[in-house]
Backbone:
């Protein structure tokens, strides 16, 4: 699996500059290994990160592959540049996929490309905006845009496999500007789901029913913000959401499914991406479309929804 655009690169983990000599790199690795060891006050997670970083750049051949973006986990343009348009049916699977509207990740990809060109500078030829070496050097703000776009595309590809009976809307405007959007709305027999796809570049956890983590901006409240946007859509369409779901990569979640607080009757959840489809298919106990006809809910949303372009 390719690195997240926000992932710390091996040089950052080892605490050296990318142009450090082989001897400097080796000394830094030994120092970080001692600091990160659980017996000396570190943690097993940090110890593993140091070892993984050394595997990526610890030998001349591995370092050359990483520096040129040709190693398997460098997140090259082939993966970051791929844009989901709703997902692909698995080979041998003839079941109809979910009905899908909108362009998942489209807004953030456009913002990423605009800011990347601005950061590189006018008049500079930008052959590959997804070149891994270029992405690694970009400011975190720009890398985060790409990370979120990729996260939305991954989630959309998974949701597309829900099959008949489910309808998806992506990048739904829920406020005055394009940043005020719901990444995915899912409607099916198990209810109406508002879904936020995110990648903060590292693990998250839950405190007082809200998602927190080192990668979040100060004061950022993902569940609260999702609830505010869901309220806008619910009011315009005259519908009620069953659940508010924050989706992250599996390795960043504290567990496969974590209950957050309930807001206006909608259950908040923090979910690993690999668990999402099964969760929505099976639903939550006692949660559905509230007795309202599914076709009626779909019609109301379709008539009122505004897609971000």
Residues:
């Amino acid at each position: 699996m390719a690195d997240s655009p926000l992932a710390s690169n091996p040089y950052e983990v080892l605490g050296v500059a990318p142009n450090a000599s082989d001897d400097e790199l080796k000394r830094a690795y030994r120092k970080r290994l001692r600091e990160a060891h659980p017996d000396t006050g570190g943690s097993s997670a940090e110890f593993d990160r140091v070892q993984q970083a050394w595997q990526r750049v610890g030998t001349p051949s591995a370092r050359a592959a990483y520096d040129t973006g040709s190693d398997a986990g460098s997140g090259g343009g082939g993966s970051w540049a791929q844009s989901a348009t709703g997902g692909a049916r698995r080979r041998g699977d003839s079941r109809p996929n979910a009905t899908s509207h909108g362009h998942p990740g489209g807004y953030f990809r456009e913002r990423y490309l605009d800011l990347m060109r601005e950061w590189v500078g006018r008049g500079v030829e930008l052959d590959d905006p997804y070149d891994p070496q270029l992405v690694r050097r970009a400011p975190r703000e720009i890398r985060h845009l790409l990370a979120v776009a990729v996260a939305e595309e991954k989630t959309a590809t998974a949701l597309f496999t829900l099959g008949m009976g489910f309808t998806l809307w992506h990048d739904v405007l829920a406020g005055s500007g394009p940043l005020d959007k719901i990444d995915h709305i899912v409607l099916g027999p198990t209810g109406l789901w508002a879904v936020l796809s995110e990648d903060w570049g590292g693990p998250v956890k839950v405190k007082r029913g809200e998602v927190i983590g080192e990668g979040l901006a100060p004061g950022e409240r993902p569940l609260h913000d999702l609830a505010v946007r869901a309220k806008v859509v619910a009011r315009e369409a005259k519908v009620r959401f069953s659940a508010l779901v924050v989706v992250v990569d599996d390795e960043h979640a504290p567990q496969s499914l974590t209950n957050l607080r309930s807001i206006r009757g909608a259950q908040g959840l923090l979910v690993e991406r690999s668990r999402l489809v099964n969760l929505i298919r099976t639903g939550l106990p006692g949660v559905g479309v509230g007795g309202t006809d599914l076709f009626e809910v779909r019609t109301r949303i379709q008539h009122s929804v505004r897609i971000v372009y």
